[in-house]
Amino acid sequence: MSDTPGSGAIGRQRWAIAEGYIPGWSNGPEPQMSSHETCCILNASDRVASVRISVYFEGRDPAGPYKLTVEPRRTRHLRFNELRDPETIPPDVPYASVIESDVPIVVQHTRLDSRQAENALMTTIAFAAD
Amino acid sequence: MSDTPGSGAIGRQRWAIAEGYIPGWSNGPEPQMSSHETCCILNASDRVASVRISVYFEGRDPAGPYKLTVEPRRTRHLRFNELRDPETIPPDVPYASVIESDVPIVVQHTRLDSRQAENALMTTIAFAAD
Amino acid sequence: MSDTPGSGAIGRQRWAIAEGYIPGWSNGPEPQMSSHETCCILNASDRVASVRISVYFEGRDPAGPYKLTVEPRRTRHLRFNELRDPETIPPDVPYASVIESDVPIVVQHTRLDSRQAENALMTTIAFAAD
Amino acid sequence: MSDTPGSGAIGRQRWAIAEGYIPGWSNGPEPQMSSHETCCILNASDRVASVRISVYFEGRDPAGPYKLTVEPRRTRHLRFNELRDPETIPPDVPYASVIESDVPIVVQHTRLDSRQAENALMTTIAFAAD
């Protein structure tokens, strides 16, 4: 086996997360224990990934696209509550998201909810389009 | 990249969730902290999605179909304990579900369990049929 | 859309769960709050599913096969700690499992851990073999 | 059905986990309640699996490859915080990982977070490359 980590691109170019919800409040020390919803992106390829995220709601048109880049052979753990341009995502509102990239990436969805005294966690690999 | 969010339909037309259980009691402020089991549906297409949900049990014939629609480019986070027609799903009973749609959708399953003083969370993308 | 719930078989005939661990102790009222690890099986087909489960360990040969059936159009939420024949699965030991069926099924893995005062939950759809 | 557990290899040879984070502190009895992030590997085949893990970060080049073996018909639940060669993974830093094997394996990702008084759990089957 090689002594160089990784072996190039892995993943798909289009992903979806049907669950989304930014808890409205938090408990515990900041920033680790603040309630957050994270979109973890892995770009194991040798090229910069140009990523656009569209956010869908129950009662209004979609927001975005939010545009970002992930450097080659890097991961980026993006908190939805830090998205600013073109608009912030309001807390306490259900949403969903579609993540598109020009190179293959892997997407995983995680929530830390610290609204009550002890935190709760959930995660899933996102849905990878064919 | 385009400045319009999303780029059309994503997903599959038939999904399954093998786990299902509505906790029998709750702690904390309503409605955010009430125990619930959610079926999150994303319809990123440009057409209305007609969805039917069948609910399977351990000791009786399936319930449903529960019929609903999801508007184009919208998400819907449906709580199983809010299903009424043709019948409610009893708490504290194991079930499973199959979700069918006439357009591609993405389905994710989430449970918030607040039976004890602090809440617990779990989520997974549902199984997408071929 | 039809008024009969479900529309037949969904899933695959061979599944795997790489994580497995029966917590060694519990808190809270029995049986809902006892720590457990569940293999949720959905048989949406019109035929009885004959299922066999093999359990893999870190330091010994596999256990099983554990044999069971799931009736047509039924789910079964099986607790690993209730398996008895040919042997019980010890608590506090890492394991993994392969679930095989003669008809298509859907498998989901869930753990409720109540070793500390408040319970924790996790779930994932199992890996579906091609 | 056969009376021998298992029926050979299942899974894929290349997997990815986009989420990774070793919590910086713990509560509760060691080692069960120490915060940890686990990569559960199932090798249901009849051959030794030679596995290499590459770890990706947000702001530096990848670490690894970490090399290990999983014996035939065995599982191995590997804690990322126990990786030592060629370097340890620092706590409180986001990472992602790619897991490669010369025989088919199944990979599942689990985190136990006990930074607050009660533990939280999350799990998902990793992304299986085509």
Automatic annotation (TrEMBL), chains A, B, C, D:
Domain of life: Bacteria
Pfam families linked: ASRT
Protein's name according to its UniProt entry: Sensory rhodopsin transducer
Species name: Novilysobacter luteus
